[in-house]
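== Protein entry: sequence and backbone fold ==
=== Local backbone shapes as whole numbers ===
==== Amino acids and backbone structure tokens ====
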Amino acid sequence: MRLLVVRFSALGDVAMTVPVLHSLACRYPQLQITVVSRPFVESLFASLPSNVRFRGVDVKRYPGLWGLWRLFRELRREGVDAVADLHDVLRTQVLRTLFRLAGKRTASIDKGRSARRALVRQGVRRKLRQLPTSFARYEAVFARLGYPVQTDFRSIYPSGRGEVTLFQQVACSPDGKRWIGLAPFAAHRGKMLPAATVEALVSRLACQPGVRLFLFGGGPREREVLERLSAAHANVQSVAGRLRLDGELALMSHLDVMLSMDSANMHLASLVGTRVVSVWGATHPFAGFLGWGQRQTDIVQLALPCRPCSIFGNKPCLRGDYACLTGISVEQLVERILGQ
């Protein structure tokens, strides 16, 4: 049986497929699984069981309906018996329709859009309750194809830790200190702590004895901010833009704890079995996006009547002051990070 699994989207969304795919591959070793996603996420799947193969697809090379037809023909030539669409957007809807017309079994994710809208609805009509996690939604897709699976996953690394050689030239080798990661950025303002809070947090953590702090981020602006923060402290180092994805994953696996927003870094650290203190502002764990294996007690959030106001954090603040994030104190964060 040859199963094609499709999930493009952002890094964090793709990362959440890994625990389920790992468990699926172990549960059904006879199943040949091909994962189709964007090329830069390949490192996430490098340590999965041998019956999982990754195929990177640059979607820009397949524009429009004609492009999707070409992609369909390429994928079909590789041999496909069934298709699991873990994305359910127009691009993947077209692909799975073509496979279905070709006589292949298909199943797609139910994103629970109406329940999500009810979760962020303002006023008395809000339904504030825990929704199925992304992991449970992925499991349901495979169950509909005849492969029920219960996710059981600890780390992408069989030994529990990544290779030190992947990051030691940029960071350093394990030195017996308490290694703490800090990833203060996210795609949207509704998911980011104020700059002043981040700066004060870095200073407070840097003053702790026996601590080494690593700062994670992405684009040029983030790298600039993190380099400035790290320059003031000998035991603080920014690795933003200096490591490949496999190097960041390996470094995260050696952390004692990571503080992250509701962002991709929460999910990356979760994939290597690292404890994550996650900070939530406009969004809420009830939407089902908490990192795999993370504890409810490591969630930092404020109980405000307007929260959550957004599933993805991309809507302007209803109050205009982002109180859900500005109201989180440095003391709260430090206490949660240094606790166990």
